[in-house]
Automatic annotation (TrEMBL):
InterPro entries: Calcineurin-like_PHP_lpxH (IPR024654), Metallo-depent_PP-like (IPR029052), Phosphodiesterase_MJ0936/Vps29 (IPR000979)
Protein name: Phosphoesterase
Top-level EC class as recorded in UniProt: hydrolase
Family: Belongs to the metallophosphoesterase superfamily. YfcE family.
PANTHER family: VACUOLAR SORTING PROTEIN VPS29
Pfam families assigned: Metallophos_2 (PF12850)
Entry keyword set: Metal-binding
Taxonomic placement: Bacteria, Bacillati, Bacillota, Clostridia, Eubacteriales
NCBIfam families per the UniProt record, alphabetical: yfcE
Domain of life of the organism encoding this protein: Bacteria
Known EC number: 3.1.4.-
Boundaries of every Calcineurin-like phosphoesterase domain copy: 1-142
UniProt cofactor(s): a divalent metal cation
Length: 157
């Protein structure tokens, strides 16, 4: 199964739509915050996809949760925007939270800088920002052979 991971779209409907269209095989879309409104607008155009999202520090007045968990094919994914875990200063608190939840994958945004790391059984992925000078998103593939994370630069249409 492929999961599309996006973050920090900050009102950029066009970039979010391009990311969604570029990954037609993604069955699940996880938005990591700072883009609640544009994700709500995009949902109607992609009824075949499952959408999950958390609120970011710029999703003012949002009733979305600050973090979530999703399990698929026995793989637990912990996802959050990242600001409540201090990800701009380091990943220790985020990693501890993911391990506490027995997650194999931790997804976060907030920094606008894409990152892929593997830390002793835990895959870490920050897809970067859809609304930056070099927009990017991430994918997580869960297969019988294992987990693969990837950061993808968003191309102009």
């Amino acid at each position: 199964m492929r999961i599309l991971v996006v973050s920090d779209s900050h009102g950029n409907d066009a970039a979010l739509r391009r990311a969604l269209l570029s990954q037609p095989k993604a069955e699940v879309v996880i938005h990591l915050g700072d883009g609640e409104e544009e994700l709500q607008r995009a949902r109607g155009s992609f009824p075949e996809k499952t959408f999950l999202q958390v609120k970011g520090n710029c999703d003012w007045g949002s009733s979305l949760p600050p973090a979530g968990e999703y399990t698929v094919d026995g793989v637990k994914i912990f996802y959050t925007h990242g600001h409540l875990y201090g990800v701009k200063s380091g990943l220790y608190t985020l990693v501890c939270a993911a391990r506490e939840r027995k997650a194999q994958v931790a997804l976060f945004g907030h920094t606008h800088h894409a990152l892929e790391e593997y830390d002793d059984g835990l895959y870490l992925l920050n897809p970067g920002s859809l609304n930056s000078w070099e927009p990017s998103y991430g994918t997580v593939d869960i297969t019988p052979q294992g987990i693969v994370t990837n950061v993808v630069k968003l191309r102009e249409s």
